[in-house]
Amino acid sequence: MFTYLTLKNFKTWRNCELRLAPVTLLLGANSSGKSSLLQSLLLLKQTAASPDRTVHLNLGGDEVNDYFNFGNFDDVLTRDASPREFGISVGFKRLAIRQEVRSKQFQNFINRLAELKLSYRKTSAGAPIVQSFAMSDDGREFRLARGDRGAYKLYVDGELAARGASRNYAPERSIALSTEASQLLGPDAAVAQDLSLDLRRKLESIAYLGPLTQSPKRDYSWNKSKPGQMGADGGGAMNALLASVYLKSTDEVATDLTSALAGSTDKDSKDLLKEVSTWLKRMGVAESIEIKQLGHSSRYELIVHNDGIASNLRDVGIGVSQVLPVLTLAYFAKRGSTILLEEPEIHLHPLAQSVLADLFVEVAKERGIQFIVETHSEHIFRRMQTLIAKGKAKAADCQMYFVKRTNADARLITLELDDFG
Asked: What are the strands of the beta sheet with 140-146, ordered from one edge?
């Protein structure tokens, strides 16, 4: 789980310190800066996934593989920023790499807070470049500082003298030390490599669903494989549902903290289609859904049952098809993942919007999923208050923020919650 996000001179945010909980809700007007908070995590994710390990920051441009196109360095930098430098820092709980660790040792391991702190400037050619890099965990820190002529100095823990300086020590993909820099660490190289691996896995575990999902189709083709991801537009939702119905192979064993502590795996015994149907019914938009194969072809249709009537997905209200990817992703994402959602309430009536809060709370508990949600729905916020007041959620497990603009700058207002909501 990510525990905090700090931004400096990033788009509309001159300074932002965001504490993250299992469920984090961001409410605010249009263009207030909410989406930029999610985008900063996507920027790190797409950089970590770059095929070029020497890249410092992947600002996007690949419509197939990148989540967001940030433009150029100056498009990211806050207006009139001084110095002309922006920073991103994240805190996160370590993932378990070795499953044979004893429970007590494992508990101590996962309670440790790891951190990544980055700042960027641009080269004379306009490309973003890491100015400073620091990753730390359990009192250990590995730090790089860019100096004269582009050489990076490597520091370990609280050392005042650099281990060395070279352009070859530049960090890779903003999350790892280079091979040349690692060679200066001796036995500590393994510590740094494990930390980078955990960080990369944590960024890979981010799943993002944008506000504009695919329009419903009358039927879908399927190649009888399980999708690796859902896609920002939810295009993989139908394939995920089909795979859950027709593919009976077990899921990958989870390495997330929640399931490992509970002694379970990610063989979710609950059927994905059944879970989605349950939540559609709780929202009052459908009684259930089912999938039917069209003859002996490779095409399938999704049938929505409501009030005794069976209808093709294309023939029912748009709200069902728009919320379908949200519900599917909640159970399709691997345990321990972080799900970023933008306006999941679109096209839903107020009752259905409020039930989304129940979804976030219950799935966060059951599957160890972290939700960071940008929304315009006051109904979701009010329902979250009610859940806390009824004891169905803990105030400590939910962070609620209001985002507003003051002139050109975004401001974050923390909505403090007590145990009565």
From this structure: 13-19, 2-10, 86-93, 113-122, 128-137, 140-146, 152-156, 164-166
CA distances from 379 to 104, 154, 209 (A): 41, 50, 20
HSE toward the beta carbon, residue 351, CA cutoff 13 A: 7
The residue type found at 21 is: A
Give the CA distances from residue 250 to residues 10, 244, 253, 260, 275, in Å, rounded to whole numbers and listed in that order.
42, 10, 8, 17, 17
> Comparing C-alpha atoms, which of 18, 65, 12, 67 is closest to residue 39?
67
Whether omega for the bond prior to residue 83 falls within 30 degrees of 0, making it cis, is yes
**Rg of the chain, C-alpha, whole Å:** 23
What are the Cα distances from residue 268, in Å, to 8, 259, 260, 325?
Answer: 40, 11, 14, 18
Task: Report which of 2, 171, 15, 173 is spatially closest to residue 87, judged by C-alpha positions.
Answer: 15
Alpha carbons 8 and 77: distance in angstroms, whole number: 9
**Whose CA is closest to 198, among 79, 96, 304?**
96
Separation between Cα atoms, residue 400 and residue 377, nearest integer Å = 12
Burial class (CB in 10 A: 0-12, 13-18, 19+), 92: buried
Residues 47/174, Cβ–Cβ less than 8 Å: yes
Question: In whole angstroms, what is the distance from residue 270 CA to residue 331 CA?
Answer: 9
Nearest one of 369, 400, 340, 384 to 26, comparing CA atoms: 400
Query: Where do runs of H (alpha helix) occur along 313-376?
Result: 318-332, 350-367
Query: Which residues touch 262 (CB under 8 Å, ≥6 apart)?
Result: none
Contact 157, 140 (CB under 8 A): yes
Question: Over 80: is that where the pLDDT of 202 sits?
Answer: yes
350-407 pLDDT, tens digit per residue, is 999 999 999 999 999 999 999 999 999 999 999 999 999 999 999 999 999 999 998 8
Query: pLDDT tens, 224-264?
Result: 888 888 899 999 999 999 999 988 644 443 334 444 443 34
Burial of 224 (C-beta count, 10 Å sphere; 0-12/13-18/19+) = exposed
Tally of CB atoms within 10 A around 259: 21
Structure tokens at 225: 């494989």
Query: What is the rounded CA–CA span in Å between residue 31 and residue 36?
Result: 9
